[in-house]
Input
Amino acid sequence: MNPKDLAQRAESLIRHSNNRYLTTVRIAFRAKQRRFDDFDGLLDDSMIKPVQRAIIELSDEQDQPDLLPG
Output
């Protein structure tokens, strides 16, 4: 993952949010979940840090909501 692309994704998340604090908490919570998934061996891509993965996932959900199940 390109650091510049990651920074742009994070900025986009913050820019499109109504509450920057809650967005930061969502990123932290998702990163914590991914960290425990790494410990359990559920994730294969352990080269990406949990916070980076959380930013990527949340920005993808924001940009492409039609990919979400339901």
In short: The radius of gyration is 12 Å. Residues 3-63 form one domain. The chain has one domain: 3-63. Residues 21 and 47 are 27 Å apart (CA to CA).
